């Protein structure tokens, strides 16, 4: 059937088997009981669709997914929700509206029969069309048998469940009608979930430039989307899946230094025993979080010392090689590792550079323990140390650059604090680097009321984009919070450590 001229439209108000027979009898089909739908040979280019206008969304996806179709569904804004499931069931295009652009798309597809809801006025559409009116709510609605060519199209549509868009139902219907997949990507972040990455990779491979569509502004600009997809499918994933540390997962950690029981529970046993123990801790949080909860080690790598030591910095540095077995065993067991720095009178960046090789592992992050950052003339335990926002930014810039250079997933950067003075000018801390999940760890211990008071106070003037973390102390808390009580804290902590 070629391009249509303006002619009278034939209308039939039919339902059930009668509609099916009418369609089969009025279209030029290969078989008497089939209509033909031809899908595109190549999947569409990866892009972000606006989704604000259902008619526009339908036109763009119809053009991107369907080469021709002998039958199509035409809906109005009021009937889209009812007719979209019929489009999916039959595997045929869905268009919205009766304007010129819809008429032109029907002509391009070479549509001979249009399915619509009973009472829909399609008089504005031109051409030699057979209009079949259906009651989409009827249980016995019959749809045409369709012979698909090129089905399915390798296409995936990502939608943000929190973003309500008028074009979402239309977009999902067209993608599913073409044999594609619709995925929920919370926050517009294709890298947050390992399941989403796996599904997207099945469509896009490592190229990412074709077959992956997104709907709505939360996914960012269209020209940046292919690179975001490519990064998601080619970057090593974190324990628990995905490449976004927070809010992609929550972590429950054991804190301490290997072989030093007095510094925390991590030092009370060997590597494999520590892995089993932290996995048992995580099991206590099962069912308390919508996000996956993964185990973690927070390893004190430079230890505050009462003596100045050979270099005079009041900090004992564990060689990076001495921590390699812990880092490697953690990777194999799906345990995240945070290297904790207690720098004494030196600076955090100097110490962080000592562990650069370990930090190039995808599952290793960093913690800055400002309680143990001394000013000239100070000594540990005589006063509480502090760090400037400028020094924090030096570390975050270096760590973010290292992460980007090595193509790593987002890294956790923890800032320890229990008094406001511990991070001066905290409101000026730069949180703009997407390579990092900067997390404020409330280190207070004692009775529940005091711990909660510290947690709330630390959120005052907290820069946007910083996640909150919580610590439970086996010996100093009276009593220690249970997992249920810990996750009732507001906001719920993303990182929970046990000392």
Q: What does this 3D model show about the protein?
A:
- Helix 2 (54-65) runs parallel beside helix 5 (168-177), helix 3 packs parallel to helix 5 (168-177) and helix 6 packs across helix 7 (225-234).
- The chain contains 14 helices and 23 strands.
- The longest helix has 17 residues, at 389-405.
- The chain folds into 2 domains: 10-234, no CATH class; 250-498, TIM Barrel.
- Helix content is 29%, strand content 23%.
- It is α/β, with parallel strands linked by helices and 499 residues long.
- Residues 1-22 and 24-31 have low confidence and may be disordered.
- It has helices at residues 16-26, 54-65, 80-90, 100-109, 168-177, 194-204, 225-234, 271-283, 320-333, 348-353, 356-359, 389-405, 448-457, 483-486; strands spanning 10-13, 34-39, 47-49, 66-69, 71-75, 94-96, 113-117, 130-134, 145-149, 156-159, 181-184, 212-215, 250-256, 293-304, 315-317, 336-341, 364-369, 387-388, 411-417, 423-424, 436-442, 467-472, 495-498.
- The strands form 5 sheets. The protein has an 8-stranded parallel beta barrel, surrounded by 4 helices.
- It is elongated, with a radius of gyration of 30 Å.
Give the tally of structural domains: 2
**How many β-strand runs?**
23
DSSP helix count? 14
**Strand sequence of the main sheet, in spatial order?**
13-14-16-17-19-21-22-23
Distance linking N and C termini: 75 Å
Provide key terms for this protein.
499 residues; single chain; disordered N terminus; 5-stranded parallel sheet; alpha/beta; TIM Barrel
